[in-house]
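Exercise: predict the structure of this protein bound to pyridoxal-5'-phosphate.
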Amino acid sequence: MNTPHSDQDLSAFWMPFTANRQFKEAPRMFVSAKGMYYQTDDGRQVLDATAGLWCVNAGHCRDEIIAAVTRQIGSMDYAPSFQMGHPLAFEAAKKVAGLMPAGVDRIFFTNSGSEAVDSALKIALAYHRARGEGQRTRFIGRERGYHGVGFGGISVGGILNNRKAFSGNLMPGVDHLQHTLNIAEAGFSRGQPAWGAHLADELERLVTLHDASTIAAVIVEPLAGSTGVLIPPVGYLERLRELCSKHGILLIFDEVITGFGRLGAPTASAYFGVTPDLITLAKGINNAAIPMGAVAAKREIHDTVLQSAAAGAIELMHGYTYSAHPVAAAAAIAAIDLYQSEGLFERARELSPLFEKAAHSVAGAPHVKDIRNLGLVAGIELEPRPQAPGARAYEVFRKCYEKGVMVRYTGDILAFSPPLIVQPEEIERMFGTVREVLNEIK
Ligand SMILES: Cc1ncc(COP(=O)(O)O)c(C=O)c1O
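Solution:
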C-alpha cells in the first residue's frame, strides 16, 4: 500500500545529490512506474522525459525483465564471482560484448558507473605495468566531465562542486583538457557543432608538458550528459583517438549514459565511428532494473594483463562482491534481448530528427540561452537569474513536474533523455510543457 508522504517520517534517508531540506519540505514521491510513466503517491501520472536517470532505456517495468529477475532470484539469489562462476555471468558478458565495437569484447562487471570508471582507470594502469611501462600513471580527464563519484572518478572529472569539498584528497597526477562547449561559436547547433575539433589538440600541449611516457589514459564522455549536454564537435573524437594512438595513451570512453542506444546505436563509439581502448558502461546495461556496471576492454588489453601474471596467479587484484550478480546478469540478458527484439536503438535513431525539431521549437521561449541535441538527448540552457544560479531551472523542473512531466536540471540547464520507446506525441508534450512553463515564470 502507498504511504502518503505527509504521514511518513523522511528524516532517516540522507538523499544523494539532493537538496535534502528543500525536498523534505515538499517531497516528490514516485510509487510505481510503467512504460513511459511514473505514478506519484497522490495518484498522478508523470511522463518520464529522462528515463529515470538516463537509464531506463526500454521503459519501466518491462514484463520480460521482471520475469527474468523473478526466475533468477527464486533459483539462485547470489553466487560469488571470485574463483567461482555461474553461467549467467558468462552469458551476460557475451551479450554485452556483442554490442561493443569489434575487439572491445572483454567484460569486467561492476555495480555502478562510478565503479566502472575506477575499474577502467585501474585496468589502464595494470595494462601499462604488464607491458613494462609502469611509469605511465597519469590520467587526463576533461573540464565538465562527469565520471561518477569515486575518488578516481571525481579526480578525472571536471565538475567543480563535485571536487571542491574533497579537493585535498583527489588523486595526484591528473590533468584536464578544456571542455568543448562554446555558445558564442556554436550556440543552437543541431546535432554535432561544426566548431571545436581543434580543442582536441590540447592533448599535444599536455603531452609536451608531462611527456607521453607518463600518461596512462585519456578519459572523456563521448557526449557529456550530466554536466549539461555537451555534444562533441565534428572531428573532435577522431582527433583525440589519433593523438592517443600516436602517443601510446589509452583512450577511455565513458559510455555510462551513451551506451545501449541513447544515440541510436549500441554505443556512442559505434555512432561516431571512433573505437576507444576501454568503454565504461552501466545504467542501460540492464535497463536499470538491478544495479550493474561494466568495463569493456580491448582484447589486447585483457590478454596482456592475463599473460603477464604467473600461472595460477590472480591477474587483476580487483573486483566487487556483487560483480556479475546473478539477478543483475539475468536482467542484463533480458534487457539486451528486448533492445534487440524491439529494435529500440534503430527506433531511437529514427525518432532523432523529430526529437531535434521538438527540442529546438523551444528556441523562441523566454530565458533560453542555448539548445543542443544528439540522438535522444537534448539540453536547454537557460539564462541564470542574477545572484541565483540554478534557481530558474529548478522552478522549471518543479512546474513541469506539477504539470506531469519529469525533466532533469543541472545548474541552469534542462536535460532530456526519454526511454527509447517514447511516442512522437510524448516528445511534443515534453517540450511543449517546458515552453509553457518558460512563458509562465520570471
Ligand atoms: C558518464 C557517467 N559516468 C559515470 C556515472 C556514474 O554512474 P553511477 O551513478 O552509476 O555511479 C554517470 C552517472 O550519471 C555518468 O553519467
